[in-house]
Amino acid sequence: MQLFIKAKLLTLVAAAGLMISCSTPEPVADMPAAVPTEPPFANAEPEKYQTFVLQTSPSGTVRFLIARDGDRWRIDSDLGQPRQTGSLHTDQKDFVLDYATRSYGEYTAGHGFDERPNMVEEITHGLFNSREIAVYENLGTDGGFAQYKMTDGKGKESIITIDLAKGLPIRKEIFNIADGNRMLEMTVWLEDFTTEVDPANFEIGKDFKKVSMDEMKKILSLSR
């Protein structure tokens, strides 16, 4: 996931229609006897919010920024790292930002807003916008938080924590189950979640220079 947004942006600028391909769900096999269902808790992405998303795995921690205010949105990847990149949609315009070179490119993509939910679902590993069919077990509540165990039938088990005050999942621990062993693969959580959105999230820094999309494609390719 470290290069998720950069790969998406490269796909955007390379494709003539600027369409991002969606992955095909893997077939579900060896599902436990319990009946699989959609998530028994709300996980729709709010209309207005901003949050950091952190992914921790054996290879380290990656930070993202997601901000949304209606049809305006921004997603930044690899926050604080030399390869930080961003995708911004505002006023019917779409922009790609590269922080290392302080440059940005503008492109036309009428589908841009429709693609955002899929990007958010992948970055949050399903904390937002997931309708994944799986077996969910309610583990109970404690101190304003509820937990569910999710078994997806693909050798993955997750513990999902719900913030009852916010009404949203805020943490997901993903385990790989193989040969009878249960190993923590990744932890994903929301940090500093708020429904008070900073308008600056939807602005491009004054020190950024505009480049052609052909040039932006080269910049993103070189910085991967």
Description:
This protein has helices spanning 4-14, 112-123, 213-222, and strands at residues 48-57, 60-69, 72-77, 85-90, 93-98, 103-107, 135-142, 145-151, 156-163, 168-178, 181-194, 209-210. By secondary structure, the chain is mainly beta. Strands 7-8-9-10-11-1-2-3-4-5-6-12 form a twelve-stranded mixed beta sheet, with helices on one face. Helix 1 (4-14) packs antiparallel against helix 3 (213-222).
Strand content: 35-45%
Q: Can you tell me the residue ranges where pLDDT is under 50 for at least 5 consecutive residues?
A: 10-28
| Main sheet properties | 12 strands, mixed
Order of the strands making up the biggest sheet? 7-8-9-10-11-1-2-3-4-5-6-12
Number of helices: 3
Helix content: 10-25%
Average pLDDT confidence is 84
Summing up helix and strand content along with how strands pair, one would put the structural category as mainly beta
Number of strands: 12
Distance N to C terminus: 13 Å
Please sum up the structure shown.
The protein is mostly beta strands. It has helices at residues 4-14, 112-123, 213-222; strands at residues 48-57, 60-69, 72-77, 85-90, 93-98, 103-107, 135-142, 145-151, 156-163, 168-178, 181-194, 209-210.
